[in-house]
């Protein structure tokens, strides 16, 4: 029973005063409106009234704590410790447990299992059902793996307990329990022989299971198309993840060639819900790749490539021979060198890419080879400073001082010849000139004349170059410039990625001169070229040709690309474009230049692409240049090629900085993968 309200000090004073006057306790109680008992209690123990303690241990949880525990526990999956932490309480775990138990609204329950189908899942299922109404389901073989426990099913050990009966116990073996994994498949024709597999089946084992159990069963279909379904588990995918693997898989399976011809491969897939499990249905396949990501990554175009289809015996043997031929072709493809031809206008960066291949795939440059580059670098320095001096007068610019003018005269007197050695005198003149503000202004206008791209790079490090101990670094070699004449080739090998079969791929790359008078030699190397790597300099948009100062360099490059794209002798070669010198282009844009000054159509492009996702002006500029090339590839063919078939050609674009080894490493890896994939596709395997 709840206690009554205690007497106030005023009431206590009233009781004491009335009692002294001799008034009875009952009378006092009625006068102050309280019970007889409280008046009696007070008068019996005036000094200690109201000081009596509660019995038992004080509660550790206040009402507020209990409310917060209740709130934190409600429908939560939190542990007792978690709830304690959430409520910031410093009580023991059993206290929390007791408090939750005491609460009649909270009981511990196992969460019920329910597939959470969102609307898009439901839509996908309806869509699938609609699309597959007329499918011949009697041709589908459904397969799956299942684990059986000797001790009973995992996780399903609950039961309805009748409290009037003895409890039931789950018999568990401490030793010798265990599980078996079984692979099975069913279809309208019956069941496929069960296979006992290991709990952690790998892709090799999966392949063996298919060979031993599925292939014999498939023969009973006697020439009709079969659809094999698997649930896309990683071991299944691992076995067939790439189309290249498909071939090796067929080989690994050691399928007799008449059975191999019954393999057909298609990559369409549908998700559906059947037999209580989610699966992907893959049509027309015994062993199928359906990894659409891999397919995209590999750039596979012919997604419905067929290795063969079930047919009569004669057709089978024909297909079998065809497949043997294809496999042979693959071996040849990988055995022979891939020939790549580098094309592009002068100074676009072709030779620089060849140097990068040397750095990346051969052992770079020896000390001796580096030393041999010194004269070339001296030449680059001299050509750069001499051109700047020559342009000072032509552009009407002034030197800072008379001394600097004399230095200019000294350089001009050397004429086109480079100094044999970097003498101190020569070095001092060049340094004085390079620090002259007139020369710097001249350099800022270098798009108006012909200056080497590497001018600033070498003039900035002139002091190091002029030292007698100077040995060019790899970076120096990448920046050095020498006009290419004739045809040069480089051979190297590159590792084939494991997921494409592994091994080594041999490459042969041809470098040609890009100047107009060199281009008539190109045709000599067109024969047998698998890929053309067309290099275009994006940084040249404001410059004119050395050979023809009336012609814009970028316009010339785009025109040349058109010629290469439509060239009938290159019709069967893949075209890869390197939109090079991104660094130079960015520098120019940052300095306030716009490609619109040289290509008025840029304003229209800018207007139309206003909503486009461009990071900045440089990004828009490089995509504008790319678009010019894309437009060419969309033009109708100029004439029907005698070599190429009529399938549409694709062009692959990369934005590059040829002097940056990391950039070229990355880009070349992509190019390599793309070529391998294209090769497989070209022989009908992808
Ligand atoms: N900054 C910068 N310089 C580059 C880049 N690519 C090439 N260069 C420089 O441009 C100059 C010309 O490059 P090359 O590789 O010789 O040009 P090419 O296409 O072989 O020219 P030709 O042999 O005349 O056909 C060299 O000084 C290179 O260092 C780049 O992406 N960025
Ligand atoms: Mg070259």
Please tell me about this protein's structure.
The structure is a single chain. By secondary structure, this protein is α/β, with parallel strands linked by helices. It has 4 domains: 63-102, Arc Repressor Mutant, subunit A (Orthogonal Bundle), CATH 1.10.10; 119-151 and 179-332, no CATH class; 336-350 and 484-682, P-loop containing nucleotide triphosphate hydrolases (Rossmann fold); 374-471, GI Alpha 1, domain 2-like (Orthogonal Bundle). 43% of the residues lie in helices and 12% in strands. It is built from 27 helices and 13 strands. The strands form 3 sheets. Strands 9-10-8-11-12-13 form a 6-stranded mixed beta sheet, with helices on both faces. Strands 1, 2, 3, 4 and 5 form a 5-stranded mixed beta sheet that branches. Strand 9 (487-495) and strand 10 form a beta hairpin. It is flat and about 140 Å long. The chain starts with 8 loop residues before the first helix and ends with a helix. Residues 239-314 and 641-646 have low confidence and may be disordered. The structure holds guanosine-5'-triphosphate and magnesium ion. Mg(2+) binds at residues 351, 484. Residues 3-51 form the Tc3 transposase DNA binding domain. Pfam families: G-alpha (PF00503), HTH_Tnp_Tc3_1 (PF11427), HTH_Tnp_Tc3_2_like (PF21517).
């Amino acid at each position: 029973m709840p206690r009554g309200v205690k007497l106030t000090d005023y009431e206590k004073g009233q009781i004491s005063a009335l009692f002294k006057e001799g008034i009875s306790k009952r009378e006092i109680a009625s006068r102050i409106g309280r019970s007889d008992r409280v008046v009696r209690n007070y008068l019996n123990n005036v000094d200690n009234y109201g000081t009596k303690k509660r019995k038992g241990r004080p509660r550790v949880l206040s009402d507020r704590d209990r409310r917060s525990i209740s709130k934190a526990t409600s429908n939560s999956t939190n542990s007792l410790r978690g709830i304690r932490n959430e409520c910031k309480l410093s009580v023991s775990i059993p206290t929390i447990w007791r408090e939750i138990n005491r609460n009649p609204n909270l009981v511990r329950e196992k969460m019920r299992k329910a597939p959470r189908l969102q609307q898009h899942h439901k839509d996908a299922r309806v869509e699938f059902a609609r699309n597959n109404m007329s499918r011949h389901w009697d041709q589908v073989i459904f397969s799956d793996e299942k684990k059986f426990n000797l001790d009973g099913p995992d996780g399903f050990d609950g039961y309805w307990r009748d409290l009037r009966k003895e409890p039931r116990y789950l018999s568990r073996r401490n030793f010798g329990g265990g599980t078996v994994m079984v692979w099975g498949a069913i279809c309208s024709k019956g069941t496929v022989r069960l296979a006992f597999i290991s709990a952690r089946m790998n892709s090799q084992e999966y392949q063996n299971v298919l060979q031993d159990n599925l292939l014999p069963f498939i023969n009973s279909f006697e020439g009709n198309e079969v659809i094999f379904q698997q649930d896309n588990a990683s071991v299944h995918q691992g076995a067939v993840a790439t189309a290249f693997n498909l071939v090796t898989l067929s080989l690994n399976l050691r399928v007799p060639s008449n059975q191999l011809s019954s393999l057909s491969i298609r990559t369409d897939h549908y998700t559906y819900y059947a037999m209580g499990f989610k699966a992907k249905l893959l049509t027309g396949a015994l062993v199928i790749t359906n990894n659409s990501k891999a397919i995209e990554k590999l750039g596979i175009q012919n997604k419905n490539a067929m290795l063969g289809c079930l047919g009569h015996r004669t057709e089978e043997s024909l297909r079998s021979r065809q497949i043997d031929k294809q496999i042979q072709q693959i071996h040849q493809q990988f055995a022979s060198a891939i020939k790549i031809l580098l094309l592009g206008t002068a100074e676009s960066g072709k030779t620089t890419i060849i140097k990068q291949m040397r750095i990346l795939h051969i052992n770079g440059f020896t000390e001796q080879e580096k030393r041999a580059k010194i004269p070339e670098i001296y030449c680059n320095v001299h050509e750069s400073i001499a051109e700047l001096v020559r342009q000072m007068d032509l552009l009407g610019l002034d030197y800072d001082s008379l001394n600097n003018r004399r230095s200019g005269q000294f350089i001009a007197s050397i004429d086109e010849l480079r100094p044999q050695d970097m003498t101190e005198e020569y070095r001092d003149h060049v340094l004085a000139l390079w620090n002259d503000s007139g020369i710097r202004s001249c350099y800022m206008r270098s798009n108006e004349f012909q200056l080497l791209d590497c001018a600033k790079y070498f003039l900035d490090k002139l002091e190091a170059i002029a030292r007698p101990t100077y040995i060019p670094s790899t970076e120096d070699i990448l920046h050095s410039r020498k006009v290419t004449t004739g045809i040069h080739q480089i051979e190297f090998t590159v590792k084939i990625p494991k997921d494409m079969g592994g091994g080594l791929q041999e490459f042969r790359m041809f470098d040609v001169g890009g100047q107009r008078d060199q281009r008539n030699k190109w045709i000599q190397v067109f024969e047998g070229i698998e890929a053309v790597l067309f290099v275009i300099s994006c940084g040249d948009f404001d410059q004119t040709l050395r050979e023809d100062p009336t012609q814009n360099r970028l316009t010339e490059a785009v025109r040349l690309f058109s010629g290469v794209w439509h060239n009938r002798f290159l019709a069967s070669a893949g075209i890869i474009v390197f939109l090079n010198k991104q660094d130079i282009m960015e520098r120019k844009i940052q300095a306030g230049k716009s490609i619109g000054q040289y290509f008025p159509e840029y304003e229209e492009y800018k207007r139309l692409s206003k909503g486009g996702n461009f990071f900045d002006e440089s990004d828009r500029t490089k995509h504008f240049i790319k678009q010019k090339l894309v437009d060419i590839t969309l033009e109708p063919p100029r004439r029907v090629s005698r070599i190429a078939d009529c399938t549409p050609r694709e062009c692959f674009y990369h934005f590059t900085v040829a002097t940056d080894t990391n950039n070229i490493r990355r880009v070349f890896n992509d190019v390599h993968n793309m070529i391998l994939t294209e090769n497989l596709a070209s022989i009908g395997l992808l």
